[in-house]
Write the structure tokens for this entry.
Amino acid sequence: MAEAHQAVAFQFTVGPDGIDFQLSHEALRQVYLSGLHSWKKKFIRFKNGILNGVYPGSAPGFMLVLAGYLGRAHYLKVDPSLGLLVKLGRHVPVRYACRTDFTKKIAFGGVMVGTGLWIAIIFSMRTVLKGLLSWHGWMFAPHGKMTWQIRLWLVCILNIFSGMQTPMLYSFQNSLPHLPVPSVKDTMRRYLESVQPLLSDEEHRRMQSLALDFEKNLGPKLQWYLKLKSWWATNYVSDWWEEYIYLRGRGPIMVNSNYYVMDFLYAFPTHLQAARAGNVIHAIMLYRRKLDRAQIKPFFALMNRVPLCSAQWERLFNTCHIPDTVQHISDSRHIVVHHRGRYFKVWMFYDGRLLLPREIEQQMERILADTSEPQPGEETLAALTAGDRVPWACARNAYLRHGKNKKSLDTVEKAAFFVTLDDTEQRYDPANPVESLDHYAKSLLHGKCYDRWFDKSINLIVFKNGTIGLNAEHSWADAPIVGHLWEQVLSMDPVKLGYTADGHCRGEPHPNLPGPQRLQWNIPPECQTMIANSLSVAVALANDVDSHIIPFSDFGKGLIKKCKISPDAFIQLALQLAHYRDKGKFCLTYEASMTRLYREGRTETVRSCTMESCAFVRAMIKEKLCLLTQAAEIHQQMYRLAMTGQGTDRHLFCLYVVSKYLGQDSPFLQEVLSEPWRLSTSQTPLQQGELFDLVNHPEYVTTGGGFGPVADDGYGVAYVIVIQH
């Protein structure tokens, strides 16, 4: 076989006539092309690092400053360094320059001082831009009104301090403000307001007493440490949030943490599993290439003028949540494909280029045609990533970090991403819409509990009938990052890449392409027992989850906006009403809000159950709608506070972490952080509507994604508002 001969660069034998070397020129050629690709990527990253480091400065700006400074010095016949060169002349290497004629001295000094002036201008602009971005008065202005302060503020950001060059993905990172620490008094007030509709008068008075005691005694001491951290660290929440919420957890991340996103609802680009995998994998790798080159446009709020933090994109690929840490490598040239309990390593590059869709389809066809059986313990191996984390850590260290198991495990964990060629068929069935989508969602959320590597940053699932979806691990980033990738992939798959009339990817198979490599495992019986135990835990968890996907097409956000109500607030109030009708009571409600207006910001909680929302629900039960607008406005106000760093829960969480470090327990914090979120909600908005012509092609509507509930007796509600009418 061709791939067998190309597996090594050279061979040698020792005989009577000496050593006989046998070089494989094809293998050496591939080594050369691989190294060339690697150095190109390093150069691009180095160049982008410089451009991002000097933004909002630019090369034209540097030349303009330098030319102006040199011209002024030459015209006035003055030393541009103002005597600095004379002082430096006592030291090399500028001594020679100081002894040359005046023209050369002007040139040398002008370049030196002009560069310093340019750097000073950059830092001044960056400091002013950070100050401007720290103002969030625009978020609290009445909807549809643009005050003169906001107009002036936008002019300063857009026309003065945003640079002369086109910004790249990470250009604004150094200009974003740090997340502020709210005062303890404000957090206590907002917390007490949020729990008032959930407590009786007596319970609320008791909680007020606890909060007042905390505010006067332990709170200021904990707050001092948080203030110190906010001055020193880039973000006072994000590292602790990742460590203690995601990495220190000992329960399964399947269902409890991982989430999923779905395919088109009505469009079915091809029925061929390998072909769909070929196009989608190629599209994902193209996105990764743009990400490596920082060619993805930065993200903005308020008419595309206020930049958002892009830090979470850094770990989208080549990332794995191994027990207690997130492992990320700078580059990976392969993916791992799982099919019928076997694992295959598939190289994504050949001849120094990315594989084309038809070539990837060719690799998938080879895997689907492979009739070999799983090795002992291999079929259910991934169940370790679905069960409790402590047994997984023990099994990983004891049995999978040695011999050929280590090589195979490294291949999986260091892959660009993980692919499952699922042997089931999932699809929206108009004749049976609810049940078909329920099965589809549960398959994406947990599958068979052993056919997804839940630790990988993203798992691409390709079903037997060509339907696709993603399962994403949560510790490294939040859902909008995966959502942006998925929108790009779905927009590219059926239109830009396309398929032939018989459903195959466009193009031709490669005649000499080396095939996938089967990973080898040697799993002892003791490890197989641990795998079986993890699988039983995961299956019990999966069976305990009910999932329902409900497409709603009666009206969309266009009609809601005509009522001058926020679509998100409208949905949240509808959820409050539905929960009250279902349970006969209100509950603590979690809605995720982003804090990416700040550097390394992730999320904050919007406590959607308020006194106003409860008043609306009670009135609605009596068929009255007059309180809807008031409740929606209060919800939007809480959302704005969360986005601008004035939320409640992240501050309380960090105060709790500091109290644990200091060994000082707070009855107030213990009670607050033990309250269950029985209604956990999140919107997955369509971020790039321009990619989909839903007016002419409504079949490209997607149902978004979903996640598991965070309380055993609670609900996890994900929603996407797509249509306008």
